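Troubleshooting log. The previous run stalled partway through. Resubmitting the same two chains, unchanged.
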Amino acid sequence: MSFFAWIGRWLLRFWGDLGAFALYGCRMACGIWGGRWGRREFFEQLDRIGVGSLSMVAVTSAFSGMVMAVQTLDQFVRFGATQYIGGVIAITMVREMSPVLTGLVVAGRVGAAMAAEIGSMKVTEQLDALRGFGLDDVSFVGSPRLLASCIMLPVLTVFSFAISILGAYLYVSTHGVSAFVFRRSVAVMLEPLDLYGGVTKGFVFGLLIAVSSCSEGFRAETGARGVGIATTSAVIWSNMLILAFNYLLSTLFFGGMPRGG
Amino acid sequence: MEHLVQLQNVTMSFGTKRVLSGVNMSVAPGGITALMGASGCGKTTVLRLIAGLLGMQGGTLVLFGTHLDTETNPEVIVALRKRMGIVFQSSALFDSLTVGENVRFPLKFCLGITDENELGARVERMLSQVELEGIEKLYPAELSGGMRRRVAIARALVYDPELLLLDEPTTGLDPMTARHIDRLVASLGRRAGAGILLVTHDLVSALGVADTILLMEEGQIAWSGTPEEWHATDDACVRFFSKGMIPVTKGGEEPWNGN
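Second attempt completed without errors. Output:
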């Protein structure tokens, strides 16, 4: 196969996948309002996505906050600007690190599970059984996952932000930066738009994770191998979409924005 | 007597592979029709077409008196699905639900029953009919293969469907359990008055419970008749299928040779 043929096939598959995500995403979103799905399933997904991810998000965020502090403290001390360190770390975490880290953690943990679970349901004819009962399998299975993911990702993002700031404070407080200075710089430098942008990113990442992961599950080929491929694809697509949309949303919310304070 | 299901010259292909080449058959109300044939001959495709899980490509399907073809509105098919129960080859019980919740699922989502007392009573009665009392709280993973099939039959019959579709209900079961499933299907189906389409390659099962037997070969109905006629016929396809031998086509070639 020639190089150009390979590129052509890859591009066709790439756009085909994105098209499938759009179609499944629309069906799942429409299903939230018009479809039939179990309330219990929705609460279970809230628990799995939210409560189930708390520990991983906490550990990731705490260490990320501490690493941010390790990397920045020396530079701020050198330039005599330690009064800004809390604010700079807070802005970085709330705008970029917390939503992206939370998204990547949830994509790896929950997105993979969604794709595997739905793929297994397809292989074992459970999705066919739903259709046999006159239900729309995509909205019945996908809609509660989409809704739960869109609700829990912003919540986890805020949680991640709080834990990362705590982690950063724990480090700088042992290196001569007072709690008052740290807290004041956070209060002065952090603006409502930063928090709004971070939470919006969380919402969009939740949507992307649920749509790409559920779609891969629904499109899984038969057999254990098909479920495995769907799971891998779900994680890859979720991560790629999170990073790409993070850039777009950062440009939209914060691109070229002059800072006050 | 109007048939529950009638297929007229139905064709189906997957890619370039022709699976059904003009199937003509029917299922009568209150009777058991067994659709038999070798693996890969298109039996399950017929069942999935009737169940609306595959779209029509050619021919006509008359389901409960409604003509379905490639132009039929999907909502019509969805409404018709609620009048039939399906038992899948893998049982297709919902892993995340208990046995009781699996059986009450169609009552809630197909019939819209919300009264907990009624749901509980109907589930209990149905499970007792398949001789599985007291397992409502178990999950499907905790059941044996035979128990899973019986729960699947209970789930399919709990909302009194007019048509019951069974896809290989005895595959993978030991002979005693398989005959038990046969007896349950026959007794419960007849008691409910449902027409039953039994897709199987289990000859003992088909001859034991069916009123009509259809033999599929290469995407077509090659023979049809009663079990008595099956025993009496000299038809080459029937004889070869009964003895597990490969039939020889008119051209002298073995049709499955090398496939």
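Takeaways: Chain A touches chain B through 15 residues (CB under 8 Å). The longest helix of chain A spans residues 85-123.
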